[in-house]
């Protein structure tokens, strides 16, 4: 569940509900940590927690700057960014057509990947330099009591500590992101470098494997030093594995045409069908979604999920037309990857397949896509295994 909070340069900014959890965690850590890593001894307590929350908020503003650096540069290279979402583990810039990344020059992908970490390193260096030249130390001023007695407020006295925290965290964030752990920025930098020398598929597979290896090393270090590092390493390992699977899936879907895997025998319902009758129809046919027709033409789509918000006692007053959704379609000659992207964009589980005259020729579901991926990958592996098996040469007759 995400909420839109702003729009920057035409890019919508969303905050996921999980972001609130890590925001509160960071604020709490800042509030209980001693100088120069927090505000534990700041009095009164309300000032301590306000400073901690303000520091956490500013830190996540720098996280947003990190993602904007990626996104704005990607936009300049022709990669349209749908939105930016801040999660509990950071931010994600959603590219409208992710498969386009593999079609750009690897040097441009390298620049996009480096833009985020570089922005954090610059922010961190500038903030720590400011502390050094203004307050005489990158750590700020430890003895804030004298500052307060000289007439400065508690908040003003703790500005150096806030600057130190933000500068340090940005430097850590920047350098940590450069580690060659896919799908972090460093892993994407590695893939872009490898893509200059190999195919994009080989570069991605290599980057994923190296990322997994670095994650294991980090996990081992974390077990003996800091369990938080070990947990983060586990998360990065899982992310690398999932990214590898997603890349394999999209590569497979690129080579499949919708008309080859769509279902041509489509069950439909009329828009005038009473909702109660539709529910009974679903139980009989056991399909979760159906195209809605009127006079033989498709006018909408209805799923079991669409009926859930209707109270059971009120269902007799509704027809299919009252709750059906707009048709989301795909052309039969489109790739399965196009269908996959359409499902993700519109958050639907199935698409109606319409020809150039807007006639329905089939339907394709997420299950169809997953089955195609499984079969294609399985047969590919079987073919590779058979090709690698040693062949017995025929014996010559003597």
Give a description of the structure:
Helix 3 runs antiparallel to helix 7 (185-195), helix 8 (200-225) packs antiparallel against helix 9 (227-254) and helix 9 crosses helix 14. The strands form 3 sheets. A 4-stranded mixed sheet has the order 1-2-3-4. A 3-stranded mixed sheet has the order 5-6-7. Mean pLDDT is 82; it is low at 144-152 and 393-398. Strand 6 and strand 7 (297-303) form a beta hairpin. It is built from 15 helices and 10 strands. The longest helix has 32 residues, at 45-76. With 398 residues, the protein is an alpha/beta fold. The relative contact order is 0.07. The chain has 2 domains: 2-178, no CATH class; 259-376, CBS-domain (Roll), CATH 3.10.580.
Major β-sheet annotation: 4 strands, mixed
Calculate Rg over CA atoms: 28 Å
**If helices are DSSP runs of H or I spanning 4 or more residues, what is the number of helices?**
15
Number of strands: 10
Cα distance, first to last residue?
A: 77 Å
Residue share in helix? 55-70%
Kindly report the spatial arrangement of strands forming the biggest sheet.
Answer: 1-2-3-4
The outline comes out as globular
| Low-confidence segments | 144-152, 393-398
Average residue pLDDT? 82
Protein structure class: alpha/beta
The succession of helices and strands, N to C, reads EEHHEEHHHHHHHHEHEEHHEHEEH
User: What percent strand?
Assistant: 5-15%
Tally of domains: 2
Domain CBS: 262-318, 323-383
Cofactor: Zn(2+)
Subcellular location: Cell membrane
Main location: membrane
């Amino acid at each position: 569940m995400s909420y839109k909070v702003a729009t920057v340069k035409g890019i919508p900014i969303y905050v996921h509900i999980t972001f609130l959890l890590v925001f509160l965690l960071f604020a709490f850590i800042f509030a209980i940590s001693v100088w120069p890593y927090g505000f534990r001894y700041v009095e009164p307590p309300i000032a301590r927690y306000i400073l901690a929350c303000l520091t956490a908020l500013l830190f996540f503003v720098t996280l947003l700057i990190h993602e904007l650096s990626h996104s704005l540069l990607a936009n300049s290279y022709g990669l349209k960014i749908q939105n930016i979402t801040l999660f509990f583990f950071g931010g994600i810039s959603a590219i409208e057509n992710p498969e386009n990344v593999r079609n750009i020059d690897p040097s441009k992908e390298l620049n996009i990947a480096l833009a985020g970490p570089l922005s954090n390193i610059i922010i961190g260096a500038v903030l720590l330099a400011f502390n050094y030249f203004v307050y005489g130390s990158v750590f700020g001023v430890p003895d804030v009591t004298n500052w307060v007695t000289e007439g400065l407020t508690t908040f003003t006295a703790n500005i150096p500590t806030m600057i130190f925290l933000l500068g340090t965290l940005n430097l850590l964030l920047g350098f940590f992101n450069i580690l060659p752990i896919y799908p972090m920025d460093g892993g994407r930098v590695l893939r872009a470098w490898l893509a200059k020398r190999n195919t994009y598929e080989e570069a991605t597979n290599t980057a994923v494997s190296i990322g997994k290896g670095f994650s294991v090393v980090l996990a081992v270090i974390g077990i003996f030093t800091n369990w938080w590092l070990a947990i983060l390493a586990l998360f990065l390992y899982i992310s690398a594995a999932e990214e590898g699977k997603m890349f394999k899936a999209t590569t497979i879907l690129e080579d499949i045409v919708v008309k080859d895997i769509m279902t041509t025998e489509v069950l439909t319902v009329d828009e005038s069908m009473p909702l109660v009758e539709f529910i009974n129809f679903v139980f009989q046919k056991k399909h979760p979604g159906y195209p809605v027709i009127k006079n033989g033409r498709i006018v909408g789509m209805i799923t079991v999920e669409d009926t859930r918000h209707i109270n059971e006692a009120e269902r007799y007053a509704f027809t299919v037309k009252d709750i059906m959704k707009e048709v989301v379609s795909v052309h039969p000659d489109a790739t399965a990857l196009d269908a996959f992207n359409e499902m993700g964009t519109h958050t639907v589980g199935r698409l109606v397949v319409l020809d150039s005259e807007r006639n329905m020729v089939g339907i394709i579901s997420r299950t169809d896509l997953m089955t195609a991926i499984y079969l294609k990958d399985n047969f590919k592996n079987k073919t590779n295994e058979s090709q690698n098996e040693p062949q017995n040469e025929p014996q010559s007759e003597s």
